[in-house]
Specification:
CATH topology of the largest domain: CBS-domain
Structural class: alpha/beta
Number of domains: 2
Helix content: 25-40%
Number of helices: 12
CATH superfamily of the largest domain: CBS-domain
CATH class of the largest domain: Alpha Beta
Oligomer: single chain
Shape: flat
Order of helices and strands: EHEEHHHEEHHEHEEHHEEHEEHEEH
Strand order of the largest sheet: 6-7-8-11
Radius of gyration: 21 Å
Strand content: 25-35%
């Protein structure tokens, strides 16, 4: 039996106009705890999509880094043309499109109703849990080339690791055991006040930028321990992969550290790992 997109797509879809600025896009992502928005024209026709990573890539260019979010508009950042599916598209085909195009969402569009929903990588976690239970172990699909950091690694090192990781995840380890996990969201949409709080600098006597002797502040750079989600849930390498998908879906996790019987780090399960297994096994 063919499993169709309409069974697992999310609806309604949060959308913005091409003329909306990125400050509004960011606020919607934070308010609804979502990773992307669909961009529509004045006739409400879907014309593009913006993800968190699209925002990062745009502002990573030094020529744009000083721009304010209110000065940049959705039409400048959105990815277009859309890669889309219909409600009757099979889940296997949707998984193939995500893997082939390195994307995590597909707008669901029909000729009759227009934009009906969106199928995300998170939705495919649920599909895997429902239809591929008991067929494959975590160890058969887990990533073994994951990025790791120590609790005292700086923010700048973490950003470098995130940029080098295909799933943009970093596991913080201590004595080869996972003690935290850092995702792109922890960096991009972090509330500044949570890092730069009172006491995040030290006062000392020194020279100001103009060369005057005065009291100056040395600001403390955030480290991995400040950024990470501590005490992450883990899964044993011999567990069923559907159990990992279930944990990730229920907790809205993008990744799950894999451990052995001694709780030592062995691998990493990400949404892309689950999507690859879903495509292979359906």
């Amino acid at each position: 039996m063919t499993i169709k997109v309409e069974k697992y797509m999310s609806s309604p879809v949060i959308s913005v106009y091409e003329s909306d600025n990125i400050a509004r896009v960011r606020n919607l992502m934070l308010r609804y705890r979502i990773s992307r928005v669909v961009v529509v024209d004045t006739n409400h026709k879907p014309v593009g999509i913006i993800s968190r990573h699209d925002i990062i890539n745009y502002f990573a260019d030094r020529r744009r880094a000083e721009k304010r979010l209110e000065e940049v508009y959705a039409r400048e950042i959105m990815r277009s043309p859309l890669i889309k599916v219909s409600p009757n598209t099979s889940i296997k085909k949707a998984a193939e499109l995500m893997l082939k195009n390195n994307i995590n969402s597909l707008p669901v569009i029909s000729l009759e109703e227009g934009l009906e929903g969106i199928l995300t990588a998170t939705d495919l976690l649920r599909a895997f849990r429902d239809h591929v239970r008991g067929r494959v172990k975590v160890s058969e699909y887990m990533r073994k080339d994951y990025k790791i950091a120590r609790r005292d690694h700086s923010l700048f090192h973490i950003i470098d690791l995130l940029n080098k990781d295909p799933d943009r995840k970093v596991v913080v380890v201590e004595d080869d055991r996972p003690i935290g996990i850092i995702t792109e969201s922890d960096i991009v949409f972090i509330e500044p006040r949570s890092l730069w709080v009172k006491g995040s600098y030290m006062k000392r006597r020194g020279l100001t930028a103009r060369g005057h002797l005065s009291i100056v502040r040395d600001y403390i750079i955030p480290v991995a321990e400040d950024l990470m989600t501590p005490d992450p849930l883990t899964i044993n390498e011999n567990e069923d992969l559907s159990a990992a998908a279930d944990i990730m879906y229920k907790n809205r996790f993008g990744a799950l550290p894999v451990v052995d019987e001694k709780d030592l780090m062995k691998g990493l399960v990400t949404k892309r790992v689950i999507i690859k297994a879903l495509y292979d096994l359906l």
